[in-house]
Amino acid sequence: MSDTHLQQRIALITGASSGIGRATARLLSQHGLHVVLTARRVARLNDLAEEIRTQGGTALVLPADLAQADSRIALIRQIRETWGPVEVLINNAGFGWGGDVASLPWETAQAMIEVNIAALVHLTTLVLPEMVARRQGWIVNVASIAGDMPTPRIALYSATKTFVQSFSEALYRDLRRRGVHISIVNPGPIATEFGQVAYGWPEQKSRRGTTPDQAAQAVWWALRRARKRVYVPWYYRPLRWLNLTLEWALDRGVHTHLRKWQHRLLGRQ
Ligand SMILES: NC(=O)c1ccc[n+]([C@@H]2O[C@H](COP(=O)([O-])OP(=O)(O)OC[C@H]3O[C@@H](n4cnc5c(N)ncnc54)[C@H](OP(=O)(O)O)[C@@H]3O)[C@@H](O)[C@H]2O)c1
User: Fold this and answer.
1) What CATH number has the domain bearing residue 82?
2) How far apart, in whole angstroms, are the C-alpha atoms of residue 213 and residue 198?
3) How far is the CA of 183 from the centre of ligand 1 (A)?
């Protein structure tokens, strides 16, 4: 399928200062979309915008703390005033926290719910009326394989991603005949700063895994083919069925053994 229908579109990418969001912004710009970059770290957004412009692309930097409802409203208003309505929304910003829920600080839990859930829903409700009115729009929500399989030690993070999957699937069913395409991208482990933020891993360990560029390709694939659900890497696709059929084994900790085998197989520690 040709992707000319996406060229010159205004695309908002959240979490563009790092990892999957940064790689996605680069890729969408290479495919001719006008990209709006948002996150909190403005210096990184400016560097990326500079790089995109040097390569002939168009980028707008609008820093925002997406945990704040006011910032989300201001962000969409600024885009509309500067460039026009958002036509492509990539809800990618998010973070996790690893450990026992018993020691999870409420402020961290609240911020995670705000960024991973509330911001995704809020931005969607802010851009959707215009998309529905025009009968045209694309929303890609970055969830996780952890949303398919509730995972110990990242319990709240898993739950936020299950929410993203459920919300997106229902929205897909609502909108599929109304010209607005909803896609879910479910990454497995990707070599970004996610591990540093969630587990305090050193940067070197965070470099292992599928690359952010591969994850960005999955986002692009979902977008240009209007795919409902895409996995990256693809072989994590059976996980949601495994979670249902092997519930008894998972309750007894079989995933811990699987992870050890996987690490041994891939030569990881
Ligand atoms: N890496 C993985 O293994 C993996 C696996 C499955 C799913 N995912 C999902 O992929 C998405 C991208 O994560 P990543 O792996 O690319 O991690 P990352 O490198 O840590 O990037 C996270 C992005 O989210 C932004 N962000 C976090 N809190 C924010 C806030 N309050 N306001 C605005 N932006 C905020 C960060 O920007 P600032 O800090 O500059 O604000 C950053 O750009 C997330 O939704 C994550 O859950 C990742």
Assistant:
1) 3.40.50.720
2) 21
3) 18
- Does pLDDT of 269 surpass 50? no
pLDDT surpassing 90 at residue 168:
yes
Residues with CB under 6 A from ligand 1: 15, 17-21, 39-41, 65-67, 92-95, 115, 142, 144, 187, 189-190, 192-194, 197
Structure tokens at 230: 């895409």
pLDDT at res. 203: 77
Residues with a catalytic annotation lie at 157
pLDDT single digits (tens) 197-212: 998 888 777 667 899 9
Q: Look up the domain containing 120 and give its range.
A: 4-237
Query: Contact at 8 Å (CB) between 187 and 211?
Result: no
CA 192 – ligand 1 centroid, Å: 8
Q: Ligand 1 mean position to 182 CA, how many Å?
A: 20
The pLDDT value given to residue 251: 86
Nearest CA owner, ligand 1 atom 44: 94
Residues 173 and 269 in one domain: no
Rounded Cα distance, 158 and 18, in Å: 21
